[in-house]
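Notes from hallway chat w/ T.B., transcribed later so I don't forget. T.B. wanted the structure written out for a chain they're using in a teaching module, and asked if we could keep both sequence and structure tokens in one place. Agreed to drop them here.
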Amino acid sequence: MTSKEMYRSTAVLVLGVAGLIVSVGGCSSSNAPEQQPGDNLAAPHVSPTATPSLASTQSISLPVEDYLLENDEHAQILYASKLLVRQCMARFGFDYVVDGAEKAAVDPKGDAANMARRYGVTDTATAARFGYHPAPDTVPAVPASTQPMSDAESNVFLGDTPGPGSSGSAPKTYKGQDIPSHGCSGEAERKLGKGLQERLPESINDASFQQSMSTPQMTAAFRSWSSCMKTHGYSFQTPLEPLRGRLSESPSAAEIETAKTDVACKQKTNLIGTWVAVESAIQKQLIEKNQEALAQTRTTARQTLKRSAKVIAEGPSS
């Protein structure tokens, strides 16, 4: 990997990727791949017990959110990971800069379910101000530093982790010191645990959304919403269509008008209430199927959070 391919501002992504690569590398001895918890994420029979009347997604949660890390928890683990990477890199004479501002999440109590934007724009006031653009205070700041890592820094950071651009065997030592397995990023993960590598809750979160759109309840709801939009001169089949394509730098008057109509039609047809009911029913089935694995996932996440809190409390020593 060359220095042009590795930047400090994006290096944190490898903190999660390293562990994922390690787990994917293991294979079953049988010809068929070993089934893992959550491999079967289909919920073929969806029968919502009730459909609430909802004007927006405010104060609404889905069942899987009991197992998802909140944004502030995710930020805590990532920040602790960076502190550990900094300590490791310092042993090799490198200055891995960690910005203390990264401890704070933009939307602390949000999570991967992204209820505020899960079904597109759902709030009238937000649509009137920003159209389909996210509110500025919900967008993470772009890291200022893009200083490239040298090849030597990248080798110490990644170790023997395979990745795009890598060729041949990675150096195992640097200036007489052994490079940890999977580099400093791998060392950080081993110290914290795999709290960020538990993908089952996110898989259920994604599966329920995808499966919901093909259910009879949602296809009927989409038709009603589409008919409502058509009476106002818009031709969309689903609420996801207005979100496609590149947004302008700032919302135009036409975009705002479309978004306001979108929200009004969602409210008129109770699309949000139907969608929440359908997804909740799907998620309950998938959670029931994967109860034991989800319980272990939650335990692992709590352990990682506890360790990350300890790392942060000890401070950014090097």
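Follow-up for T.B.: The CA atoms of residues 133 and 247 lie 7 Å apart. Might be a good example for the class.
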